[in-house]
Specification:
The structure is a homodimer. By secondary structure, chain A is α/β, with parallel strands linked by helices. Helix content of chain A is 26%, strand content 25%. Chain A contains twelve helices and 24 strands. A five-stranded parallel beta sheet of chain A has the order 8-15-9-10-11. In chain A, strands 20-21-24-23-22 form a five-stranded antiparallel beta sheet, sandwiched between helices. In chain A, strands 3-4-5 form a three-stranded antiparallel beta sheet. In chain A, α1 packs parallel to α8. Chain A is globular. Chains A and B meet through α8, β20, β21, α10 and α11 of A and α8, β20, β21, α10 and α11 of B.
Amino acid sequence: MSAASQAQRTAEQAGRDIEIVALERGPWTSYSACGIPYWVSGTVQDRDDLIARTPEQHRARGIDVRLYTEAVGIDLDRRTVTVQDVAGGTDGPVLEPVPFDQLVLATGAVPKRPPIPGMDATGVHGLQTLADGHQVIDWLEDEQPERAVIVGAGYIGLEMAEAMVLRGAQVTVLDQAPEPMTTLDSDLGAEVRKALEGLGIDVVTEVEVTEFESTDGTVSAVRTADGRYPADIVLLGLGVAPNTRIASEAGLPVGEFGGLRVDERMAVPGHPGIWAAGDCVEVHDRVSGERAHIPLGTHANRQGRVLGTNIAGGQATYPGMIRTAASKVCGLEIARTGLGESSAAEAGFDAFAVTTESTTTAGYYPGAESITIKVIADRSTGRLIGAQIVGGQDSAKRIDTLALAVWQEITVDELAMVDLSYAPPFSPTLDPVTIAARRTAERL
Amino acid sequence: MSAASQAQRTAEQAGRDIEIVALERGPWTSYSACGIPYWVSGTVQDRDDLIARTPEQHRARGIDVRLYTEAVGIDLDRRTVTVQDVAGGTDGPVLEPVPFDQLVLATGAVPKRPPIPGMDATGVHGLQTLADGHQVIDWLEDEQPERAVIVGAGYIGLEMAEAMVLRGAQVTVLDQAPEPMTTLDSDLGAEVRKALEGLGIDVVTEVEVTEFESTDGTVSAVRTADGRYPADIVLLGLGVAPNTRIASEAGLPVGEFGGLRVDERMAVPGHPGIWAAGDCVEVHDRVSGERAHIPLGTHANRQGRVLGTNIAGGQATYPGMIRTAASKVCGLEIARTGLGESSAAEAGFDAFAVTTESTTTAGYYPGAESITIKVIADRSTGRLIGAQIVGGQDSAKRIDTLALAVWQEITVDELAMVDLSYAPPFSPTLDPVTIAARRTAERL
């Protein structure tokens, strides 16, 4: 819908007319999927608060939004999309094909669901759509679960862990990896584990789920090779894969990470008039120089605007991304940007990492929290290539300064000299970012 | 003391011996002057919390710290400093001159005290040193003032205003300028005024203090041309001027803002072996290209390290600054970087400014606070040349991203595309910084 809105704006500014049809299989448009865990936790009271723009609001701006209308096929030669009415379920009638001059694929991603026995038991939930949120909230209210097991300790898994803690459940998080949050290096992941355990969350790593046990069709426990974790509710946070089924069936190019290939204008190469953006595409990682599938709302939003500008006759390019992300689990803040120590080595850098501990305010100011920053630099040039943060309140957003430094390819030495702000309520005399950069520069 | 510590480290690393004498007229070393308002307010309980390193700690690292020892003259030919023992007061004995090979001037700044009648009444306080802090705290405890008048609505003045609010006083702030915080453009200053008034602080601008009235030698009111403000305590926040008396008496070059001239190594040009850093020098403003006197601890600290490296035989340069600063008054956060709209025009830019309002978290997340960002760009190039922020909790530190963008001379268009972090507790999908940059780019 970012692309649609931007196309509308660009066309208007150019005094052009553009007819936009938006096909949506569900009942909602433009909502904050990232906000769902906060709604489930009760932190956000009203589902409608998550909705940025309703179908009616889009329609009022001239976009023909068709709800419960699923795109089930693309005919590239005839320039039509086959659509099905799914208001009454997936066996609804096929409708008149929708013709297009330009086609935008914004099909998003689908949750990964490895074939584990018992996965379909009631009480086992994903948490991707508002509909999932409703299901989980109903379950929480009806069943008052005391024991929650989260499978997957990534962003979504840990946000669900917070939600379950706030709902009063005893929470266990299971993951295959040695430490939670594999978007961080394992040393910082170990810091996250410590903090989660401090919140009373049971973190079990290097385990693979082998079965969901159920009683009368309702989940009762999660089994691993060595263990059994009783559960009144199970939440799956196993990541997502690009949703490219109809695109690949139509012969559009899919990359090695399963996402659609697009150029920097967000056009599908070799297929004039076909565009794609969001969680269904692979994009350029500016630091590694390689393509990657990083499904995040910030990327999708920027891509949508670039795409919308271009389809309406404007000129915009998407410069790529650097995997910047942030998350919060109760009082713990986590953030990252660029490459980690091991991925930097894989990308051909002579990676050099220094981890620094500091405080979020002047040490003497009440409420000073600990902040750990890991800086990854290229040893030969001193260039900053990544950073990771784990800390208390007011830690995570400092990643933005580091992200811009990574983006600009500056050295840790230069970064240490940049005139950042200071006042005792906001940082020590030298910001933790400056301290981290300086320590790294000193040890290079 | 930054310079002294760094010189010691650099010499050690090079395996050299260096003898460092530090002359200090007071009893303390290395304390957080910026923390004094928080000690006065009672937010920080213990004065010693503000002390980063005691004289004993410096001595343990081999620095010969001489307290109550004031440098009163410099003999550039004989290479000596004339010193006076001021332990018993300013009429103490002159001591044996202290010889030097290299001399570092770190004499700081002195509070401005315009010649206003009644200024010497008891109850009229500056707040620069720990000794000042003790005096104010004693006054607060002995006199329990109900009405505090602050003269000067800059950083220090407003931090004192917060301190007095927290001490339960009714606070009036007086300033000559049309709006408080003249380091901000007046439109953002007006936002600060609104917020201060919301905190119950009386803000009176465009007034000049003509007299401090007193009763039996104790201040009782502050008079302006048109008004009279009863006061049980008066705090002066009128800014500071470089303390260069002994340097200029010795013939060292002073610039147009009254600060010592230094090159990028922090050496005084034309005087080999003479160095200066901190609030007593003028430095390079990277955006305007001109020199300026901006007395801030962050600059002093960086300059001291550069200087310390150089006097011990290392190589370091100070790249200049961009006037980045932040402050907090109760729930209000204020920050700035680069040039303001009017100073940008003076510096020869075709200044173009856009002010954007957003929220510090996703709008639906509890505790979302309003944040106003003003972005100043050069119209012809789109280059970001300054930014100012006024907002609630978690607003101010976003200035660092904008500061790095100003430092790197990137355009608002580029900044809008940088991959900054997002999670609902930390920002809307697009960070306020991104939104501000994008809006500015759209309107350029």
